[in-house]
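Holo prediction. Input below; ligand is 4-nitrophenyl phosphate.
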Amino acid sequence: MKKISVLFVCLGNICRSPAAEAIFISLLKKKGLTDGFIVDSAGTGSWHIGKKADSRMRFAAERRDINILSRARQITSKDFEEFNYILAMDDSNFRNIQNLKNSADSTDFASIKKIQDFRSVFKEQEVPDPYFGGDEGFDYVLDILEDSVNGFLESIS
Ligand code: 4NP
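Structure of the complex:
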C-alpha cells in the first residue's frame, strides 16, 4: 500500500516543526502505524540548515520520552510533489508556503493546511513561536502539538 507522507513546516525548522514531526512519529509508533507513513519537517527560512533542533526543545521533548532527531532543512518546490500533506505551524508559515507553491512549477500535489485546524483541547489558532521566550514556552508548544497532531491523525484515519 502507498505510504502517506506528511511534512511539518515552521520558520526555522529548529523548534516547532521538528517537535511536531517527533510527536507524530511517536504517536504512529504507539498505534503501530509507522510503516504506513513518511514523516519529515522543514523551515521556510534558511538560517539553520543542517542544525539539530534547539536544545531547549529537545530537552523539553525528552522529558516526555519524545526524541527529536531531525536536522534543519528548508522547504523546496519539490516538496509539493513529494508530500500528501504540508502542515504549517502559523499563518505566516502558511502564507509563505502558499507563495512558494504559487511561484513553483509543480503539479500541486500536497494538501496545505495549518496544524491548528486539527486542534480540539487548545484554542490557539497558531502554534506560538517559542524561540525568543522562556523555557515554559517550549512545554506549551509540546502541549498544543500533542493535541493537534493527534487530531490530524484522527482526521485522516
Ligand atoms: P521555529 O522557531 O520556526 O519554531 O523553528 C524559530 C527558530 C529560529 C528563528 C525563529 C523562529 N530565528 O529567527 O532564528
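The chain has one domain: 4-156. That is the main takeaway for now.
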